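Let's sit down with a protein and look at its sequence and fold side by side. Which protein we use is up to you, so please pick one and set it down. Label the sequence line and the structure token line clearly, so we can match residues to local backbone shapes. Go ahead whenever you are ready, and we will take it from there:

***
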Amino acid sequence: MTTRPITDTQPTQPDRNFDDLAERFGRTIYATPRGQLRLLALAQDFHDCAVGAPQSLLDLGGGQGQFSLQLAQQGTQIDLLDVSSEMLALARDQFAAAHLPLTAQLGSLQQVNEFFPQQYALVLNHAVLEWLERPFDALPLLVSKVKPGGWLSLMFYNLHGHQWRQLMNGRTHAPAAATERLRQQGNAPQHPLDPDEIADVLQQLGMTIKRWRGIRCIHDHMHQKIRQRIGQDAVNQADLEFGLKEPYRRLGRYVHLLCKKADNHDE
């Protein structure tokens, strides 16, 4: 088993802010089959692990709050923090349109205790780690926000899926790297992450991993013409099934880890 130090040593640079991409993210990710598949996978994991609709939820780097909105509709109280004012505006609009309450604050993940000092029954951190300059530094903070007996839902850009995609696109010389052009345009996460290293650190921090899923392990590696021929429903069902199986889940574009913190009464 690989042991990763909880604190990394990467140079300090600004974390990515998505003010310039907020509307494009809504259009090109969340309103597409890829985004719908992501929401389906998360919903299935929460159902299978009997997470339910917790009383309190903290969405760290919550962006437009798509998945939080689904839980808010079931009665969960949502606190959301994001570094992008444009993303927060979209989140507030979505919740207002659904006539649901939302407490949203503008700030970085590192500032969370300034705005939301309490612990939560559920903490979400979806597609955030890979954009941080020091992603492993964030893990203790995320875990600290979870109540004893609570849950952490962590989704991040997968190194293995990234490398496989790069290889299939002919980048055999540097499959782990993102092109500088894509990074400057904001389309390439800064740090694709190894799920084994993330899992090791979470376990060091006292979390038990209840679900490890690869998301878009079929969708992203299937030719578009084949997806069109068999239909999106068939693609989704295959992705949901094989995203839970080795070795296919390791090729997902994203990994979802659903983790539980021990209760104070647990031995």
Notes: The chain has eleven helices and seven strands.
